[in-house]
Specification:
121 residues; mainly beta; seven-stranded mixed beta sheet; four-stranded antiparallel beta sheet; 0% helix
Length: 121
């Protein structure tokens, strides 16, 4: 059974940083793409960043230059380093796994339960 567990969320002031982690189990981690998405209240889940099994990376325009996605296949973990956080980054952040790197949430077949990120102004 595939399981994804996010951690690292919290409350921070604007301009500060957080690093999210997503630990995966139940499938061969290195064989799958991983994605980070976020969902604010009343909004749809949106793509933030993704990394393919070969290491190709994509970012949403809203986070380019501020967020960095990485993966450690030895630890079955994907990370999201978030710098220069803004109040509009406030959301629940989810990681998902999929065969290929995709920006549509509907393409991902497994999800974690999410971790709350709140950025105060």
């Amino acid at each position: 059974q595939v399981q994804l567990v996010e951690s690292g969320g919290g409350l921070v002031q604007a301009g500060n940083s957080l690093r999210l982690s997503c630990a995966a189990s139940g499938r061969t981690f290195s064989s799958y793409a991983m994605g980070w998405f976020r969902q604010a209240p009343g909004k749809e889940r949106e793509f933030v960043a993704g990394i393919s099994r070969s290491g190709s990376i994509r970012y949403a325009d809203s986070v380019k230059g501020r967020f960095t996605i990485s993966r450690d296949n030895a630890k079955n973990t994907v990370y999201l380093q978030m710098n220069s956080l803004k109040p509009e980054d406030t959301a629940v952040y989810y990681c998902g796994t999929n065969w290929i790197l995709a920006i549509a949430a509907s393409e991902y077949d497994y999800w974690g339960r999410g971790t709350q990120v709140t950025v105060s102004s």
